[in-house]
Each structure stands twice: as structure tokens, then as C-alpha cells.
Design goal:
Two copies of one chain form a homodimer. By secondary structure, chain A is an alpha/beta fold. In chain A, helix 1 crosses helix 8, helix 2 packs across helix 7 and helix 10 runs parallel beside helix 11. Chain A is globular and about 70 Å long.
């Protein structure tokens, strides 16, 4: 039997038990899990050291090594995050709506766990702990498949977290990681329709595409962000510069960072040079259309290709384009964007309203950085990822995104006439 | 270019325009659509007559012919249903939640259309009108692919509805049906990731499975219902009989009809015979386990096979099983059921609460028929189908199930520190 099938079957059985646990039981398990991460930090650090060593020998890039590495501080932050979840309100059992029907049946729609959540993700071991804790908080069993680079770290974390959860009274099988690094197990996991209630991929565009193309289980797409800042002709030039630089440079490797800058034709000669200079001095590589290149504001700007407009760089690189106005900006964003986070800088009320209404994205901003699209910034308390699809959840996904609902009908013998 | 791709591309463009229409515009279009169905009834009836003639020549079963046939009364009901939608509240633009963030950004989450909805369905032409009207109400463009048996009826209805919608000012391409009956177009439609925001299959288990296995676009599974009535040892025998007979016989061809009857061992000898006799006299074919057959209550009961416990008959047939008690009943339902609608008949408070809490289904009833799982019965105003998955929507799907959300952030120059 494939390992993913075995783990998902056990998770399904665990999910049925989990669904009947109380908020207090699950919060106690979270505290035990947080405690165990601190308590077993040597075991986890040793596993991570083995991953780091193997990754270095494979010649892994520094940026990836940084994502992979666990430090005592990072491990402490992981334990802290698990502990903080225990203090958040429990979405499970919330009565979403309800009424007495004309026939006398008391009907209510209540929030219940999804059941079995699967996650496929890449190098960061903190995702293992985050995902396990968020699922336990919401009464879900979880089957994890992290990147092979972090395999030892992930398995050590899973072992520590699962033992703590089971020790605190939760059912065996409620937290599991696929041990095999064989890619066949990923395909198996994606195909377990009827066992896996939702699959959340977290990682680069390649991983997301593979899951979308191959999964038979319901999927929530996350994270690919080709985000724009559009500087309208009425924009405050100083504010535009501040927002563009923040959206591009504050943390370029994340999905809500901006990748593309659009500027109105009427003002680009005045507004753009200071922005380009600041981007250049922040180390940003620029590609642009002919008008922008013609400005001669900075030394090296390569021509932007059709592919550039559609690319999420995830690094200090930005494409720049002059547009004729609001209509072209909105059309360009809806065409090339990934419907993640989009911002306009404007002092014009109508332009602001039209941008809010007509741009099709999970988050649309006026006069604010795209970087605010985040569960923490939005006050959701915790985040399992940022959905870029329209079904079930859109934008930062908090605890409620890990729940479903169920209708309860309490009658006294009613039949349908 | 495959027809489905062409229609979905046009629908995507139409959806962008639709998203910016007002409630009043869309309601006016619905009234025009309802009027057009009455006005062009000759054209629609002639197309349906052609479908009926072709179906009869192919030797189509009477029950299918009945589903296919449009009568003046049915066409009037279709127009009436479209008209009634215009009077329902518009979910689009509802502010789901919102607040001013600590940094001063006004953040609100608002309800928006999904974008492009695709539906694949079988013989009933009324689904064409229902789906088109529900999508227009919620600002979505729709691409339909009905069964080949109803092709002329569906195309005539689509033509009439689309012309009326466009005549009332909605964008061309907002309502379309795939004209080709080539199955390749179904596969094409299921694969249009990035163009189709959600695909809703409506039909038998075979259709649903094919969509789940092959779709690359997000899917909402609907309608397969292997529903149970469980008679607990404490049940009122008369109430149990009434509910079982209603759940099985009131309309056996629909998804919320019961397919399987479970009875506690402690009472089956007393409670079951009158139920079996009533089912038999209602024309129900029975299959059962050995204990039930040993009762000799009715003449012909075939042995139930393992497959029977998992089968949605959708006709006057029912499987019957004796269980040792609540634990076995819940385990059996969670194992063999399709998580649609499940009912317990009991006078015991603890049994009622455990059944509500532990049965994993879209709708769970105490002392009421499974037949109540319905958008109309639940007071949702309209129904696009009944979801049996846990993501996005579960149970009867009203207008809100055809919406997504979008976060709007209104700032004054905020950047992330």
C-alpha cells in the first residue's frame, strides 16, 4: 500500500474522532505540542543539521539554505506560534445561521472541521509546525508532504508534534508526514479523492501548477503573486515612490511583493525618474518598455518582454510600463496579474473607486502597499496561506478557511408533503 | 479553436463587464429573460419536440423522456422561476466584514461574482434556464453543456435567454451553451484552468466521477445521495414508519431520498414488520441482511450485497439492515454514505445529540425526513444544486454559493515596516 494512502486512511479515522473533541482538548494538545518543540529542541536541531549538511553538499543556493535552517531563535518562534494558536477563538461549533422552519424543524448551520487536510510544500520546516498546529486547532487531521531538502527536519518535527498531540489525548494518526521522498507519493496523495477533503499546495508556481493539473481532490491554490503598483496621473509623487519601493523591496521573496510598475503617460516623465533612481540604488534590476527606457533616468534598463509582464520575479527585479490611463492599467492588471494583490496610487476619487471595483484580485488597495495582504496584518490571528482562487477562500486564509459547515435539523416527526 | 475555449474566453470578457453591473441592471435582465421565455415559447417547444422525437426513436426510457419533455405548464414554471429570482436580495456587494486596521487602512471584505461558472448536466432542459438565471443574478457569466438528448431544447433556451439578457444591456457572451455534442468539448471545458472559475456538474454518479477525475478547474461536487434513515431502539414506531416511507417513496428519483434503512437489533422484530409491509405495498423492492429476511414479514426480500450498502438506487428500492446500536449505525453511515442527508428516529436525547455530532454529512436530521435537504425547504430562495463536498459550500447551494469575496483596502500612503 502506498504510504500516502496508509497515512490518509489513518488520518480519516483520526478525523472522525477529532471532530468530536472539545475546544479545551484541542487547546491542551496545542500547549503540549508547543512544549514538546522546546523540550525536544536538540532532536529537531540535530535533524535540521543533517538536512543543512546534505543541502550544502548538493551545492544548494544560499537563499534556500536560509529558508531551510532552524536556529534556536527560529525554533522558539515556532513553539511560540503554536502556543499562541491555543489562545485564539475556536471557529468549530460556531452557529453560522439558523431558524425554525415553517414546518417546525429547528435548522442550524454549524461550523465543522473539513476532515483531512493535505499539504504539499517546499523547503521551510516551519510550515510543518504551522500546518500541524492550525489543523489541530480546527479539528482537522493533517497529512504533510514537505520538500525533500527538509526531510529530516520535517520528520523530526512531525514526530515530536504527533507524539505530544497523542500524549494529550488526541487520536493516533492526526498528524503525519510522508516519509518517502519518492515523487510517486505526491501523485498518490493528490489522487486520494474521498479520503483527502482539501489539498493546499504551498510553494512556487511549478508546484502549484503540478497540483492543479493532477489533483483529483479539492485544491486551494495559494500564493503566486504577480502584483502591480499603478501610479495614476493624479498621484502624490512622493507617496508613489514610497509605496513602490516598499512593495518591491521590503521583502522581495514573498508573494505580496510587487513585480510590475505601471505609470500614467501624462506624468511618467516627471514622476518616474526619482522612483527608478531609488529602485536602482536599492539594487533592483529594471526591465521596461521603450518610453521608460527613453527617459535615460538610470543607466541600465533592459527591454521588457511579453513574458516579463506575466512574471513573478520573487527577487529584486521589476518591470515598468507606461500606460495611457486607468482603462489600460486595469486591463493590463486583469490580463497579466495573478489576481493576488494590486494597488493604485491616486488622489482622484473616481479613479480610486473604479480601480477597487474593476480590478479582479484577492486584495485591491488605494494608496497602500501590496505587502499588507497577510493574515497577521488583516487581524485574522493566524494564516495557513494566501488563496488566489475564488472558491472557498480568497486572500489570506485564517482558521475559518480550514472549516466546513453542516446543517442540523431537529424535528418532531416532520415529513415532506 | 475548440468551441468550449472560444465560449469561455468570451464569457471571461463578459464576466469583467458583468462584475461592474448594478443590481437593478441584472434584475431588469432577469425580467427580460423571463418575458422572452414566454414570448418565444413556440420556438422552444418546437426544439423540444424535435428532441423528444429523436429520443423516442432511440428508444429512450419513459422516465428519461419525462425529464426531457417541456409542456406549456413546465415552460411557464421556468419563466416564473426566472422572474422570482429578480425579486430576491442581491448577494453581490454585501460587506461580509470590515474594520479600520491599527495602521489606519480601512479594510473590508465584500462579496463579488465568481466570474465564469461552467455547468455540465444531463437531460433536464429546465437546468439550462435555472443555471443561466442564477448566474446572471449573481453577476457571473455562464458556459453550459447539457446532455445531448436535450441539445435542441438547450440551444433554443440559451438563444432566447442570451438574446434577452444582451437586449437588456448585459454583455454578449454572458450566457452560452456548447453547441457541439462531441464529448471532447466536455474534456476541453473541464481543463480551462484560469478561464473557468468553478465547474458544477449536475447529474448521476458517473458524470460526477468523470468530472472529479478529469477536471483541472475548481469543482463543486453535487448531488450523489446514498441517504439513510436509522431507527433507534427508543424510536416511536409510528413516527419511524412515517419518516421511512416518506424518505423513500415521496420522490424516489432525487438525491435526498433515502436508500437504506438501519434498525436497532433490540426492536427490529417489533418495529420493522409494519414498515416493510408499508414499503412493499408502496411498490418498493427490498434487499436486506439475514436477520431482516428471517422475519418473514414480507414475501420477497433478496439478500443485500456489500454493493447494496453503497448504492444510490434513485428508484423504489431500499436496503435494510439490523445494527447492534448507535455506534454501528454511525459507523455504517460514515462508511457507506455519501455525506448527503442522514436521519435518526429516536426519543433518546443522548442518541439524538451523538447522531447530530458524529454523523459526517451535509445535513443531519433527528425525527425528520431526509427529503428536507433542499434550497427551497431551507428558505434559501433558490438553489443551484446540493453540494456533497466540504469546500466552499455544503448542502443546498443558494445565491451566496455563486459568489466569492475580495478585500478592499483604502489607505493614505501606508507602507509595511
Amino acid at each position: 500500500m502506498p504510504e500516502a494512502l496508509r497515512l490518509a486512511t489513518a488520518a480519516r479515522d483520526a478525523a472522525r474522532v477529532l471532530a468530536a473533541t472539545s475546544t479545551a482538548q484541542r487547546n491542551r494538545a496545542l500547549l503540549a505540542m508547543a512544549h514538546a518543540v522546546s523540550d525536544k529542541s536538540d532532536e529537531i536541531m540535530a535533524a535540521n543539521a543533517a538536512d543543512m549538511e546534505a543541502a550544502r553538499q548538493r551545492g544548494t543556493a544560499e537563499s534556500l539554505l536560509d529558508r531551510l535552517e532552524l536556529t534556536p531563535q527560529r525554533l522558539k518562534a515556532i513553539a511560540e506560534a503554536v502556543k499562541e494558536l491555543a489562545a485564539l477563538p475556536d471557529p468549530i461549533g460556531e452557529v453560522v445561521e439558523g431558524k425554525r422552519l415553517p414546518n417546525g424543524i429547528w435548522l442550524s448551520q454549524v461550523r465543522v472541521p473539513l476532515g483531512v487536510v493535505a499539504m504539499i510544500y517546499e523547503a521551510r520546516p516551519n510550515v510543518t509546525a504551522d500546518a500541524a498546529a492550525l489543523c489541530i486547532k480546527t479539528g482537522n487531521a493533517v497529512v504533510l508532504r514537505g520538500g525533500s531538502l527538509a526531510i529530516n527536519s520535517n520528520l523530526a518535527l512531525t514526530r515530536v508534534l504527533a507524539n505530544a498531540a497523542v500524549g494529550a489525548g488526541l487520536p493516533a494518526g492526526c498528524i503525519a508526514s510522508v516519509e518517502s521522498t519518492d515523487y510517486a507519493e505526491v501523485n498518490e496523495l493528490m489522487g486520494l479523492h474521498g479520503l483527502v477533503d482539501v489539498l493546499i499546495p504551498r510553494g512556487g508556481a511549478g508546484l502549484i501548477k503540478s497540483v492543479v493539473d493532477n489533483a483529483k481532490v479539492p485544491v486551494i491554490e495559494t500564493g503566486v503573486g504577480n502584483c502591480h503598483v499603478y501610479v495614476h496621473e493624479s498621484a502624490d509623487a512622493e507617496m508613489a515612490k514610497r509605496i513602490v519601493v516598499n512593495a518591491k523591496c521590503q521583502r522581495p521573496g514573498v508573494c505580496n511583493a510587487a513585480e510590475s510598475l505601471l505609470v500614467d503617460e501624462a506624468v511618467y516623465e516627471r514622476v518616474l525618474p526619482p522612483i527608478l533612481k531609488e529602485l536602482e540604488s536599492a539594487g533592483v534590476t529594471l526591465v521596461a518598455d521603450e518610453k521608460v527606457r527613453g527617459l535615460g533616468a538610470v543607466l541600465r534598463i533592459q527591454p521588457a518582454t511579453e513574458e516579463d509582464w506575466a512574471t513573478e520575479y520573487l527577487e529584486l527585479k521589476m518591470s515598468v510600463k507606461v500606460v495611457t490611463g486607468l482603462d489600460e492599467a486595469i486591463a493590463h492588471i486583469n490580463e497579466y496579474g495573478t489576481h493576488h494583490s494590486e494597488a493604485i496610487v491616486t488622489e482622484d476619487y473616481d479613479a480610486a473607486m473604479r480601480f477597487l471595483n474593476e480590478v479582479d484580485a484577492a486584495a485591491v488597495y488605494v494608496n497602500a502597499s501590496t505587502r499588507f495582504t497577510d493574515g497577521g496584518e488583516f487581524g485574522l490571528g493566524a494564516e495557513i496561506g494566501i488563496s488566489t482562487q475564488k472558491l472557498h477562500a480568497r486572500g489570506p486564509m485564517g482558521l475559518a478557511a480550514l472549516t466546513s459547515t453542516k446543517w442540523l435539523g431537529m424535528g418532531s416527526g416532520q415529513i415532506r408533503e
